[in-house]
Amino acid sequence: MSTNITAIQPFKRPDTWQALKKFTNARIALGRTGNAILLAENLQFRADHAQARDAVYTALDTGRLAEELKVFHLPVLQLHSRAKDRGEYLQRPDKGRLLDITSAKKIQPGKNFDIAFTIADGLSAKAVQLYTQPVLQLLMNLCNNMGYAIAPLCIAEQARVAIGDEIGMLSGASVSVVFVGERPGLSSPHSMGIYITYSPVTGLTDESRYCISNIHVPGGLAPADAAQQAFSLIQSSLALKLSGVHAKHQQQLHR
Q: Which of 91, 126, 134, 249 is most buried, judged by most C-beta within 10 A?
């Protein structure tokens, strides 16, 4: 007597949140087969995680970036934080916030600079490589039309946001503007942020800054929009002589 055995196939359950996926890049409505996540979703998670790790460890091509910045006809300084390598940068955030001695000596105090721009690798050098040029081109045009005095452009390696405070302070600039690679996520490993700080000095914390985040395409803030927002915040900082939470509080008092 023969027995016909049919393999039992796992039942793929549809996810009731499926319609919401069009509104977000977050990992929702993944579906499941039995009690497990679908194989395709599991593999996609691993691929996205690998991209995020690669973003953290990819080095900034400072030579290429310096060449691209020559279009602005300003001196370009290549600087380094006190973190000697990527490992120390990740383990000692404090060292990424300050320049090493050699770099600090490269910055000569200016006369009445309005803005000091710093391009920092941060946690996603590729984001900086991709979006610095298009954003800065638009932003620099707006600043030049206003007659703002711009300090030498600085490229900082193994750098965090606060390194712009020291650069701005040493340059004698009224406003520090830092382009930095943001911490990569599983949906956006190559995202750039811009931090704007009035009267930069070492030791400031993030409530003293404006932040524009999530600059990337597709799905994030477009370079043209980022440039316009940054310009508006620079103008506001110079007018109020404040930035960050302090400026917002001041604006609320005058409404």
A: 126
